[in-house]
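Collaborator request, handled under Task 6.
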Amino acid sequence: MKMFYLLSGLLSVGGIAHAQTSSTSFQKDSLFQSGAKYLHGNFVAPDKQKAKYYLLASARTGNYLSMNLLGDLYLSTKDPMLADSAIYWYSQAAQLKSGFAFHQLGRIYNEGTNGVQQDFQKADSYFHEGWKLGNANSKNMVAYYLYKGLNGKQGYAAAFALYQELATQQKHKNAMYFLGILYRNGYGAKRNADSAKYWLQQSAMKGYQPAADELKVPTPENPETAIAMPVKKQSLAGNDLYKRIRHNVNPQSLPGTYTGFAARYDWSGQYIVSVFPLQVTIQNSAGKITGTWIEGKDTACLQAKLTDNSLVFSNTGYNKNEHYTPKGPENWQFNNARFNLLLQSDSLYIAGNLQLYSALRREPGHPLYVHLSRVASPDEKAIPNAGGILDLHAAPNPTAGQLKVSFTINSMQKVTITVLDMQGKPILREEAGTLSAGTYQRDLMLATTLAHGAYALVLQAGNVTKQVMIVKQ
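C-alpha cells returned to the collaborator:
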C-alpha cells in the first residue's frame, strides 16, 4: 500500500511546472477546493479517499497547496507506513518554494512523527529553509532551537533577536511568550520584569496558555539571587589522589547508598536554577544493576549496566514537576545517562553531567550536575602509590576557570598535564616538557564556555600518572 501511494504520487506529479504561481490562484483551483472540502469536512462528511482523489489530480497541475494537503492527509493517519508518503509530498511542495512545506518537514524530524527517526540537525536545516521563504513558524522554531541548543548551537542573544522581530512585527504569540521568558530570566537580554510582564500578557491575550501560566508563577526560573554550588558539602580537596574504578574488575565497589545533591542549570549552562538533595541506592545481584533514585518526593527505579569506567542507566524514568510544567508532573527518561565512580581519600563518589529526556516534549531537559558519595571500605581505599610523582595540587577547587597546578616529581621526566571530562574526553592539554626532579607550578585556564561539573586533572610523568578531581563552577 505504501509503494502504491508513492508511485501514484510520482505519476501524478510528472508534469509539475517549476514556475511559481500565486497561492490565491491555487486556492481557486476547483480540484484543490474539492480536496480541501472533503479533507476538512467543510459542509460535507469528511472523506479522506475522496480528498486524496481530488488533491492528487490538483497536484498533477503543480498546485503546491494540494501537495501540502496531501502531506497533511498522510501525516494525520498516524500510520508509520505512510510517513514516507507525507515526506514525499511535503518535499515536492518544498521544491516549489513552499515555506509551509519546509516547516512541516522540520516538524516531522523535530518530533519523530509517525515513527520517523528524530533528527534535530535535519529539522533545524528545514526550519532555516522555511525561514528564508518567510514562514514565521519556521523562524520561530529556529529561535527555539537557539534558545534550547537542540542542534548544539545554544545562544540566548540570537534567539532573543529573532523572537523580538516575530513578536513586534508579526505579533507571533509563541514568540511573545519566549520574549517574556528571556526578559524575565535575564537570558540574552538584561533582566526586565516590566518588559517580561508586558510580552507575557500580550501572548496570554492571544490565548497562549503557557504565558498565562507563567504570569501566575511568583518567581522566574533563574532566581534573581544567584544560587551557588553547595561546595561545602563536597569533600573534594584538590590534593587528594583518586582513581577511576574499573567496574569489570571491581564490581563489588558499586553497591551501597550514596547521598549528595544535583544542580540543575539553564539551557546555556551558565546559571544554576535549582539545587536539590539526592539519594541513590544501588544493588548488584548476579551482574544485574538495580536501585532507587530519591529526589525529594520524586523516586525512580534504576536499571543500569557496568562498563569499563562508567555506570550507564537504561529503562529508567520518573515523573517530576518543573518550572514550566504547572499543570502536573512530566515524565523524564534517563536516556544514555552516564556517571563515573571515583575514589578519592576515604570516600567513593558517583559524579557526572547528564540531561534527562522529556517523553512529553520529545526533547532533552535542562543539564544537570550530579554529585553523590559514600564512605569507602578499607579495601577500596587501598590505592597504589603513583611512583615518581610525589605530590599534585590544584587550586582553587572548585574553580571558576583559573587553576594553579603544583606538582613534585622525584626524577627527570617528560611531563604532560591534561584535563578530561567524566567520559575521558580531553578538554585541555599542556606539554610541560622534560623536567628535572623538583617542584613546579603551572597556570591553567579552563574555557569560560566549559560546562559546570566534575573533571579529572591528570599529570603524566613518564609512564606514571596521578589525578585529582576538579569542579568547574
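The cover message to the collaborator said: "The two ends are 57 Å apart (CA to CA). Residues 1-20, 232-249 have pLDDT under 50 and may be disordered. Please let us know whether this matches your experimental observations."
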